[in-house]
Amino acid sequence: MSNVPIALEQLTAETAEATKHQLRHNVEVQQIANRINIKNQLDLIALGKEPSTKLSRFSDQILNMLAKSKVNESGDLLKQLEALMSKFDKKEVIEQQSFFAKLFKRAPKKNEDLFEKYNLLGRDIEKIHYQFVLMEEALANDNRMLARLYREDLTYYLEIEKYIVAAEMKLDEVTTTLMPMYRKQSEAGNQIAKMELTTLQTITDMLTQKIDELERSRMVAILAAPQIEMIRNGNSELIEQINNAFITTIPVFKMSMMHAVNEKRQKLQNDSAAAFENRMKQFGGVNSDVVQLSSVMAQQPERPQTLEEMWDTIVLGISNYRKLRDEQTEQRVKAEQQLMAMRNEA
Questions:
Q1: How many Cβ atoms sit within 10 Å of the Cβ of residue 14?
Q2: What domain range includes position 282?
């Protein structure tokens, strides 16, 4: 017998079988088996009840977490971002000639409307960005909870397995040692031995039934483990997609977009000042203040060349995230159904 604690980091059907084999030689399991009073039916009924009850509540925790997941709320957020991105006209911001053609053909109020459009778009995009930050944090919190639940699952499995092995050891003692002994005495005409044999048969049936009950709880723990891991991995993929396509890209896109719009606006002012100066020269002179106005217009830094690429990244990210989310939702629904079925059977 060994008193070395059983270390279990991952729960699968294979590791469960290996663990069960180890527990047959564990001192703690032997002590549990020794404490089983086969003469007391209430003790037999209560055997392993505590970890089984905890495992049932544990399944409820997972189902509750799945129901409240922020992934379920991402549909509207994606639609909002999609609508905002559709308002971004690459011709207005990126293609310089088309942009100025629009500006020079419109009245000043129309020009200001164009600038106001992108200021408002920038504010709305920032609000969406904040919602994605919250979603990423919620998914990260879900994963931390899932990691805790996974560790709890291992604990509950191990406790239930100990009681199963202990019950099997006691059943083996009854069927291979006690029953043959009383059967032999019964065949020799011992009436008390016959009564004891009948009692032992009842005990055998109760132990067998108890083992079956604990086995169902054991399977809940074994099957729940890969479901938890699947959900964790799915959340990690969603977090990566949110971070790459939205959280990292949206702020840079917004700043680049506003920079490009303001650059166009500044260029318009410079061109207007230069045109006014040329017109004044045609009339025989130019005021020194006008010359100073046109000369002090600072040249803005060159617009980042990745603005259109960032727009494409966000739009593609919406599509990719929606596809990934739908796949994860389908897996979550299946996991939820399996967990509910296992809980009801346990």
A1: 9
A2: 13-345
* Cα angle 204, 209, 214; round to 5: 125
Q: Please, are residues 38 and 174 in contact by the beta-carbon 8 Å criterion?
A: yes
Q: pLDDT class for 1, splitting at 50, 70, 90?
A: low
Residue with tokens 């920079």: 259
218: domain CATH number? 1.10.287
φ and ψ of 189, to 5 deg: 100, 10
Residue-level pLDDT at 312:
85
Identify the top-confidence range among 61-75, 94-108, 142-156: 142-156
Query: Per-residue pLDDT tens for 43-96?
Result: 899 999 888 888 888 878 888 877 777 676 678 888 888 888 888 876 766 554
Specify if 6 maps to a domain: no
Number of domains in the chain: 1
Asked if residue 205 is part of any domain, the answer here is yes
Helix, strand or coil, per DSSP, at residue 145: helix
Whether residue 1 is contained in a domain is answered as: no
167 Cβ neighbours under 8 A, 6+ residues apart: 33, 36, 47, 48, 207, 210, 211, 214
Q: Cα–Cα distance between 25 and 73 in angstroms, integer?
A: 50
The answer to whether residue 7 is domain-embedded is no
- Determine which helix (DSSP H) or strand (DSSP E) holds 270, and give its type and residue range: helix 249-282
pTM over 0.70: yes
Q: What is the pLDDT of residue 333?
A: 84
State mean pLDDT over 131-143.
91
Buried b / exposed e over 171-191, threshold 16 CB at 10 Å, is bebbbeebbeebeebbeeeee
Closest CA to 335 of 54, 65, 151, 51: 65
Q: CA 121, CA 104: separation in Å to the nearest integer?
A: 23
pLDDT above 90: residue 343: no
